[in-house]
Structure formats: C-alpha cells, structure tokens
Known about the structure:
- By secondary structure, the protein is mostly beta strands.
- It contains one helix and 32 strands.
Amino acid sequence: xxxxxxxxxxxxxxxxxxxxxxxxxxxxxxxxxxxxxxxxxxxxxxxxxxxxxxxxxxxxxxxxxxxxxxxxxxxxxxxxxxxxxxxxxxxxxxxxxxxxxxxxxxxxxxxxxxxxxxxxxxxxxxxxxxxxxxxxxxxxxxxxxxxxxxxxxxxxxxxxxxxxxxxxxxxxxxxxxxxxxxxxxxxxxxxxxxxxxxxxxxxxxxxxxxxxxxxxxxxxxxxxxxxxxxxxxxxxxxxxxxxxxxxxxxxxxxxxxxxxxxxxxxxxxxxxxxxxxxxxxxxxxxxxxxxxxxxxxxxxxxxxxxxxxxxxxxxxxxxxxxxxxxxxxxxxxxxxxxxxxxxxxxxxxxxxxxxxxxxxxxxxxxxxxxxxxxxx
Length: 376
C-alpha cells in the first residue's frame, strides 16, 4: 500500500512474499518513493514481521509512520528509520490497525479459530495503553473505527468497543451486537465501512485466492451486501450481489455519502453493481431501501476502490487471466470514462491511494502503478 505524507511525500509498504511461500518468517519494508517515477528515495531496514498477511501503514498525527505487519508494530520517522517496535502477543499475523480520534492505535490478530484479541498502543510510548481485550469469537476482517469506537466483524457476529477515558480501557458495548450469519448459509464477512449512520460490509468471504479471485469462492452460497444501523443493531438488511453460487470477496463495499450510492461486487463471479440509498418506507427509521442503478457482469473487481467525491468518479480494477486493468467509472451511471493496463499479472486485493497530481497509485500483489491524467 501507499500513503501520502507532506506535499510530495509518498511512502510504500511492501513485504517478502517469497519467504511466505517457503514457509519462512517474513519481513516488511517502508520506502519513500518519487511521486512520479516511483524510484526509491530512501528505505527502512527490513522490519521484523513473522507470519505473512498484508499489513497496514499510516502517518500518525504525531508525524511518525506507523506500520503493523506480521506480529509486530513499528514506528518510523519520515526518513523511514525505525524509532520503536512492539512485539504483539499472539503468534499470528495482525491485519493492519485503526487510529482512534484520541490518537490510540488498535490492532488485532487474524484467525479463523482463535478469538480476536484487541491490542491498544499509545502512539508516543509505543507500549500498551490498556490491557488486551479478548473478543467473543475469531475475526478475519480488518478493524473499523468511528470516533473512539472500534468495530469488529467476527466470523458470525459484529461487536463494538468504546474507549472509556476514565478507566483507560476498551469496553464492549453490551447493547449492540449483530449476528449476521444467524440462519444464513454464507461464510464470514470482511471489512466494514462506517458511514456515520450505518455499517456496510459483504459476506461469504472464505476463498482460495492464489493469483486472482476469479472462481475462488469456496462456499456454495451467493455473497451478500449487508447493512446494520449504528444506532440499533436490530435494524439490519442484506441484498445478494450477483445471486450466483460460490460468490466471494475479500474487501469492503464503497459508499458515496453525497450521492447516497453504495457499490458492491462479487469478485469470484465477476459482477459489479451499484444501488441508490433511499429512506425506508417500512416505518423503521433506521432501515433503508436500495434501488438498482447499474450492473456490470464480467467485471473483475476485487480490490479496495477509490472514490473521487467531487467528480463522482470511482476507480476499480477489472481483471481477466493474468491481465489487470484499472477502470474509472461514473458512479451514478456506471459509464466507463477511462481505462489503463497496470502490467500486473495478479489481481489486486489490497489498497490504492490518491496522489498529488491528478493521479493515484494502484497496488496489487506483484505491481505498483501510477495512473494519471495526461496534461495536454
């Protein structure tokens, strides 16, 4: 993934995937790259990691670079040199982190069987800010946060934890829990997008990704787009994305709050579609109605998507065998406005970011590409 720092700064996080294929402990590296040529300008040493899973990186409000990768959290300065590291408690990969409004860093282990364990780090001391919290079940999805509240999508339920300043602890909300797989045949959900009123995510996330998500679904059900109210967890709804069996994803939907549009996809079956979000007519003030806007079949979307809110353009990958393209669509009509080949032979399932010059950076598991609007 890439993140932006001060104007002109672009930082890149990579990891040693070949070692993972050999069953060896892996490492990560942070580099500051040229925003145009992508040339490496300076790099960190290899950062300790351990078990492999794409981690996460952010520039904290205190100015430091924060990385969670493998079993380690690292703090670096803007020259990519390590300042502090913290060995996380479980011998499992930790899949990124969230930064709360109060600056605290919260991360968790990724496991289909071991209960999720939340570790909270202080951004200055880079040591635990409170005792670890053990969740009721395992969690594959990355954490989400809104203010000083952390949302955990478990393998069958969603929980949330509020930071209590008085006790300096994350505490579970006993009045908010959503059992999204109750009486449902799907497998676990992935990351949840918080829009301030609702949480949105997709399920049937179990898959066997190697090079791409095409045909990678391993659970017979169709995948679903799911909504739950942040005000009342009893208000929740779901919609099938393609309706086809063995639907699967590994990332979240996209929400355009200004235009009231949600974009979902079925990566395994190559479907991408959008709905208009309207107020519900069923009398429940927390429910919504979705009206179909557009639907693309044979569209290989699997990565996180980028929304340019002012122009209503959404950037999304489209993958066919060993050929990744990125397409720019009008979010209201689905009309294609541009497309470009990235040169990637693997389908991206990770994190693009905007750039500084009418451009953005697209990451896949084997390629980093800068995509830009040429000046005439």
